[in-house]
From TrEMBL:
Signal peptide: none annotated. Its main location: membrane. The chain crosses the membrane at residues 6-24, 72-92, 104-126, 138-157. Coiled coil: none annotated. The keyword Transmembrane applies. This is Rod shape-determining protein MreD. It is found in: Cell membrane. It comes from Streptococcus anginosus.
């Protein structure tokens, strides 16, 4: 039972959140005009909370697997999330006591995670020619709406996640 609770359940939660994340992003993108791209990053929010109870090695391996699945499912090219999710997990694990100390620091952590994940994804997608967009358009039409929507998601989910994980 301990193995299931410590390893299988967090992986299943992250996997389901990853799938919901993609569908929510698709829904949000279709609700707004063509040039505005709202992307959901519930996965990053859940990673922040799930990483509390996992060791650094477990966290790294789990996020590496989730990154592989994320890349295969959404990008059809292995590399972007396979690199970024474990890196985010390492930073979260290393500075967990500071990042999770209070609500304001958790809010700012989510803002930073979403920002860096989006900018790194944009940079890697442009380098690998998966996307063609100017940085100015990216900031206005993607990152700004994505930041606002994800911070609202975080504010809505924070009380529930605190009861479960803290």
């Amino acid at each position: 039972m301990k193995f299931f609770k410590n390893y299988v359940l967090p992986f299943l939660v992250l996997f389901v959140v990853m799938l919901v994340d993609g569908h929510l992003s698709n829904l949000l993108t279709n609700l707004f005009p063509n040039n505005i791209h709202l992307l959901s990053h519930l996965l990053l929010i859940f990673i922040l909370y799930i990483s509390i109870n996992l060791s650094e090695n477990t966290n790294f391996i789990m996020l590496l697997l989730i990154g592989l699945l994320y890349d295969a499912y959404y990008f059809h090219v292995i590399g972007i999330s396979t690199l970024l999710l474990p890196l985010a997990g390492i930073v979260i694990s290393k500075y967990n006591s500071v990042l999770m100390s209070n609500r304001v620091s958790r809010f700012l952590t989510v803002a930073i995670l979403v920002f860096f994940f989006e900018v790194a994804t944009f940079a890697l997608a442009n380098v690998t020619h998966l996307a063609q967009m100017s940085f100015a358009d990216f900031v206005v039409y993607t990152i700004a709406p994505t930041m606002v929507s994800n911070l609202l998601f975080f504010l809505l989910l924070q009380p529930i996640l605190e009861k479960i994980y803290l």
